[in-house]
Amino acid sequence: MRGRPAVREMLRALLCTLPLSSGWTTVQQSAFGAQYGAISDSIASGSVANADKALGRLWHMPAAVNDSSGLGQGIAWAWDPLLCDALLPRFDERIGASSLVTCDEIKQAVTRAFNAWSSNHRFLNFYEVTDECERLDGAVSEECELVELWISSAGDKVMTQMLDTSGDSNEDGAIIAVAQPLFRTAGSVGRPFRMTNGVLLPPATIEIYKAHLLFGTSRHNCWYLDSYFCSGFHRWSGLEALLLTLSILAFFAAVVGWGLRLYFMFTSATSAKQIFYRWDFDKTWDQAMEEAARWSMLLTTILFVGIFVPLPMYSMVFKPCFSCFDFEAAAVHELGHVLGLGHPNTARAEVGSGYAPPGDNVYQSVLASEEQLTGANCQNPWLRVANNTPPSATLDPDGCYDQSGRLIASCVGVRPSVMLDFAQFRPMACLQLDDLEAIQTVYPDCEGSRLTPSCTRTLLNLGLANVAVCVLVPVIIALLVQRVLRCFISQHNRDVIKDLRHQLALRAEALAGEAAALRGTSTPRNTEAMNAAKRQLHDGTERQITTERI
Predict the structure, then answer these.
(1) What are the sequence ranges of the domains in the chain?
(2) What share of the chain is helix, strand, coil (3-state, %, to 5)?
(3) pTM (predicted TM-score)
(4) Which of 166, 268, 287, 536 has its Cα between 20 and 30 A from that of 368?
(5) CA torsion 313→318→320→326, rounded to 10°?
(6) Which value, to the nearest 10 degrees, does the dihedral of the CA atoms of residues 2, 3, 4, 10 take?
(7) What is the tens place of the pLDDT at every residue in 492-506?
C-alpha cells in the first residue's frame, strides 16, 4: 500500500520541478563509489590506480570470433531442473487448484527477458546450454564448464549489502530475485580487458565471468506471468483496499437481495394462519415454485453473479496483479544487474562500507541528443557522460517511492527504467530510453547503436481466462439453473393439470351415475339440482387448471 493520494501528488509535482534528477547507474558506481569522471580518465589514460573506482564489473568482449568467453558468441545459460518445481506453487494465476502456468511458459518468459536486452544491442546475446550440459556431464548443474549464467532458485539465501545492489527483497526481507555476478581481474586469465568498441583496459580491470540469476521461491513471494494484463491494473494499486471493500459490499448486497426474495416468495405463498397453525408444505412449496417462475431472469442473474463473482474476481484477478511480482519484468531487471547496471533510484544509498562517497547517477549527452556514438565519442563514451538526467528528461512520478509508499530520501527524481528498485512492483518488462542509453554507454557500439528501444509484448491471456472464469461461468450457471427450474415447474404444472383432468373425468362418471339414478324419479327440482352440480364442477375444475397453468 502506498501513501495518501494527495500527499503523493504534491511530492510528484515537487520532483518534477527539481533541478537535479537521476539517470542510470552501474554496480561499480552504486556499490563501490566509482565516479564518472574517474571512469572517463581511466579509459583515456589506459591505466587503473584503483580497480574499484574505474570502469569494471562488466563482461569482456574477446577479439577472436571463435572465443566464447565473456560476450563472445553470447552468454551461455542453463536452467536448474529443480527451479520449476520450486517456482510453480508461487504463481497465483490459477483457477481453483489448477495452475494456468506451466514450466515451459516460465522458461519462455525468461527467454523473452533475454530478447529484451539482445534486441536492443547486437553484442548482447544469450544462448541455452542446458541440454548440452546434460549430455556432457549426465546432469545439469552450475558446475558445467559451458555455463556462464546459471538460473535457479534463491532458496534460503538472505540479502546482504552487496546483493542489495544487484537484487531485490520484499517487505518481509525475502528475496524477490537477485543477480549474483562472479568477478575476477582480466589479468587473472592472462589478458587485458577488452571493451565492445575494441578499446583495451589494463589487466587489473575487474570483469564479470559468470553469474547466477536466482528467483525467490519462499512462501513470502508470489508471482504473476501475464505482464501485459496486469500492467493495466498497476495504476489502480492505491485503490486496492477500496476494491476489496466494494467486492465485500457487492457480495453482502446480493445476499440481502436473495434473502428478501426468498422471504417474499414464501410469505406470498403462505398465510399467517398456515405458518403458525396448519403448515401445508406441499401446497406452500407448489405456490413458492410458481412465484419463483415469475421472477425476472435478468434480476435473478444479477443477484446470482453478485454472490459468486466479486470476491473471486478480487482474489483471482486483482489481488495477484496488486500483491505479486511480475516474473518477466523481474527477469529483465535482474539481467540488467547481470550486465553490470544498478538501481537508479536507490544508488546513493547502496554504496558499500569503505567505498564512500557513492557514485552519481548519470546520462550520456550524445545518446540523449538522439545521436549515435561515432569516432571519439564511441572510443570513450564516458567523456560525454554528465551527472543526473538531461534537462528535458521526462521523470517517472512513482520512481522515488518504495513499496510502502514512502519517499526514498536519496532519490531526487528518475527517468522511467526497468532498473528501478524492483520492490516497488514495477510492471515494466520493456527497456526504456534510460536503459538503452546505459547499455550503449557501458557496452559501446561504434557502428549500430540504437536510439529507440525495441520491445515485443506477448499476449498470454491468462488474466482474461481468469476474468472469463470469474464472470462467464457464474452467468452461465445462473441461466442454466433458471432454465432447469422453469422446465421443472412447467413439468410440475402439466402433471397437476393431468391429475385435475383425471379427477374431472372421475367426477363426471360419478355424476353420470347419479343422473342415471335420478332419471327414474326425474322432477323439475332434481333436474335443476343436477344441472347446477355439473356447472359447479366444471367451473371449479377449470379455475384450478387455469391457476396451475399460471
Answers:
(1) 5-222+324-460, 239-315+468-549
(2) 50, 10, 35
(3) 0.79
(4) 166
(5) 140
(6) -120
(7) 778 878 888 888 888
